[in-house]
């Protein structure tokens, strides 16, 4: 299955008017969002530097998405975002902008106004999709911006796996990917969601993802970033249903002058919810990676069990890593903890491997792969696991 | 817990909550103005540079937004009305070296608090501040003879103007934060400590801060200089009567620990529950110097305090060991900052907090390794207990590492008291209240064991169980 063939390009964001928006089932929301986007200032982020960046001069481009899924089965609906708006307007309208508020920041608002590329997946009750759905977005060139939109609705007791990747070549000039993903894992359902950022030089990725998890439902979530100049991703998993659960993994490998930030928050709202978060970040050269995580246990969320781990590995004395593993706890019958570590390659380990005949370079690679393995080994799809290992190796 | 504990874990404040009649030589009207700043400086007969410093700080205070807006927001600060506070209250004429010369009602206050008695038993020197001014400051002769200086800050400015001028505001500049600016503008009292090269003061110095009046602002300023190879342990305690309106305590404490020096600064903060305690405390430690903050936060309405150590010399060590207890209406927003700026520096932060009856504890911390601070090692452990479903706890650590040859480990846990622990103790014949009390004391033990014995006993006594509905 493939989306519209060929790329279509709009004039630049600067001077965009409501006439440029699609006249579809969400056109009113698009109009409001455009006004919001144009009104909101660029966010002031303490740990993401946007001083050389503006969306203004970039041109939105459509036709960047490629979807790979086996033929629809048992009433499963899979389509690119704009097609879904024509075919299943009711579905899109019901969920669009409810997990990630369209006024979250100017980037998300532009996405809500302009998104056409994307994917909509609806899995009916009790249906388990055996095959993963794969989605690839290609930022075609500098001076352009794409607005990927992901909407996944897993009805009660269904299961689905989605793998998305944002790619580009090295760009001559700045370009941006502004993705928004909304995930709804309804009662007893499970969504497995993998989102990889492998953009080239001069790309920015600035977006938001959010999952809403129902009673006894689960989300298994992995994000990874190896590319782009700058990344800032706000993410939240809302464990609303009693007994809901989350496993959340992330990896970042920053080299050169990359600035890559993940900000995952897990919100415990229902009774007896469980979350496990594990993140691995490596930094080399003068790169800067940030893990800004939060476990938020709301009042009344008794029986919560939540644990967060993150580790940073420094491969150069000029690189920087920040870790902010927060806990905000308003309930008492809970167990919550976090652990954060930062360090360098263990000289003893290196020495041991070199004593076995490995060169320093190969030994270092093995240790770095070992560092990431805690996350990589969790990936349930062999080809994705291989892809991630390749991405990590390519960084060394 | 299967059944909610019927007992209440409470601190008994009656010993500290008494009030004295007001009998002051000067009490500024409410609110802050340039005239009041000038008046304070004039009454203290200060050098011109200090007045200028105050006025500049007042300007900074007026212009600076409330601290921590946005990321470090604390909405509770809005309850603080800067116009409803007396910024300077002078209880008597001057700081005395003999308790006999301290006005009787004030002397009685400190006697009730057990200060002269403690001085006799185990302290090298004592300072006592009442409202804005020090009323008593004394150092044992044996220490004075070998050059140790322990004065109230105002006397130090008169007697050691050059040293004060050299160091004042160098560790915490006025512009550091809004409350540091406020303190610089209206500071009064506090301690000045100088320990000469190689002198090890082996019993503690103590300062005790008492607020008596309502709507009072206390702004003591402390400067401690530990010269090369010297050692000192400084203890501060704080209490006040309980009023229904808010008071403000906003201190600035600057500490310099030179090469091979060692300083321990112990605080038992037991302010009444109507006091905003917004304090800036920072130390710099040079080569192989050691700085330890032992910080107990039991009282106050809202405390915001993050004792810091800047590790500036090779091999310097920093430590913060703190406990916080937040009961009804209280928020203890406390933590620690460690900034590693030199190689082979190590730091450790241990934080224990307990919240109960709607109280909230927040640990905020910074662990930072600057480029070039090779082999820096940081270890952070935060544990929080939440004793009921109305109470809350936050842990907000900021970790910033800009050096590869550095090691950091941070661990935090939050939870409730283990039922099995409680059950075990109760099966040994303890009441639920006793068992709870024992567990909490055990939880805080890494802190209390670092206190001088007399203080540990006092702190443990503070934590006592009261049966709900029992005949009082």
What does the model show?
The complex is a heterodimer of chains A (396) and B (472). Chain A has 396 residues and is α/β, with parallel strands linked by helices. Chain A contains seven helices and 22 strands. The radius of gyration of chain A is 21 Å and the shape is globular. Chain B is an alpha/beta fold and 472 residues long. Chain B has one domain. Chain B is 23% helix and 36% strand. In chain B, the strands form four sheets. In chain B, strands 6, 7, 9, 10, 12, 13, 15, 17, 18, 20, 22 and 24 form a twelve-stranded mixed beta sheet that branches. Chain B has a ten-stranded mixed beta sheet with strand order 5-4-8-11-14-16-19-21-23-25. Chain B has a two-stranded antiparallel ribbon with strand order 1-26. Chains A and B meet through strand 21 and strand 22 of A and strand 24 and strand 25 of B.
Blueprint of the fold:
The complex is a heterodimer of chains A (396) and B (472).
Chain A: E1 8-9, H1 27-39, E2 59-62, E3 65-68, E4 77-80, H2 81-87, H3 89-95, H4 106-114, E5 118-123, E6 133-138, E7 144-146, E8 149-154, E9 159-167, E10 175-177, E11 180-185, E12 190-198, E13 203-213, E14 218-225, E15 230-239, E16 245-254, E17 259-268, E18 274-283, E19 288-297, E20 305-314, E21 320-329, E22 335-344, H5 347-355, H6 360-376, H7 382-394
Parallel strand pairs in A: 2-7, 5-8, 6-9, 7-10, 8-11, 9-12, 10-13, 11-13, 12-14, 13-15, 14-16, 15-17, 16-18, 17-19, 18-20, 19-21, 20-22
Antiparallel strand pairs in A: 1-2, 3-6, 4-5
Chain B: E1 8-11, E2 26-27, H1 34-43, H2 48-63, E3 89-90, H3 104-112, H4 115-122, E4 125-130, E5 133-139, H5 141-145, E6 149-152, H6 153-159, H7 161-167, H8 178-186, E7 191-195, E8 205-210, E9 217-218, E10 221-226, E11 231-239, E12 247-249, E13 252-257, E14 262-269, E15 275-285, E16 290-297, E17 302-305, E18 308-311, E19 317-326, E20 331-340, E21 346-355, E22 360-369, E23 376-386, E24 392-401, E25 406-415, H9 419-427, H10 432-448, H11 453-462, E26 463-466
Helix pairs in contact in B: 1-2, 2-8, 6-7, 9-10
